[in-house]
Amino acid sequence: xxxxxxIILGLIGTGLMAIFVLGLxxxxxxxxxxxxxxxPFLLIAVFxxxxxxxxxxxxxxxxD
Length: 64
Known about the structure:
Number of strands: 0
């Protein structure tokens, strides 16, 4: 695939994954667990999204 296609598909995929994980974290935090019960999952979710964004940057944008 071309570099432009990789960037576009990477943005779409990473964006959908981030929306899903943040929505799940929001659902857990506002539901039965409450904010403090959902906080560990929210922190893990933010870390995982940061890893996904780094991987997207390394694989699609930074390529030489």
